[in-house]
Amino acid sequence: MPIQQTDVLYTAVATAENGRDGRVATDDGRLDLVVAPPKEMGGSGAGTNPEQLFAAGYSACFQGALGVVARQEGADITGSTVTAKVGIGRNADGFGIIVEIAATIPNTDAATARGLVEKAHQVCPYSKATRGNITVTLS
Hints:
CATH superfamily of the largest domain: K homology (KH) domain
Number of helices: 3
Strand order of the largest sheet: 1-2-3
Oligomer: single chain
């Protein structure tokens, strides 16, 4: 269910110049990056790219959701990490993305870890936003 404007607690604001081959910056100045297509897509690779930024945001958000679920379940996720791999490629509409989320949770058994990851996927705002739109695989 979508949130209403009155429910918004924080709004991030970023502006891009020259699309995938330029600059992106936030209104507060905390993020100011050169963006460039990766070499694999014919670019210089001299900057970051939107897929890297999406992977960074998704992995951080998913780690947060994992923490929420772990607290609810009484599970220890100390030392855990979440890695997001965001791939981009051609599809029938032009281009699309695909995501792989890999969580490492050292202080729990595999079945518990898998359950925590699946529950985190249900509550993570990035997972909710992408659900039904792109393929997201969990491990």
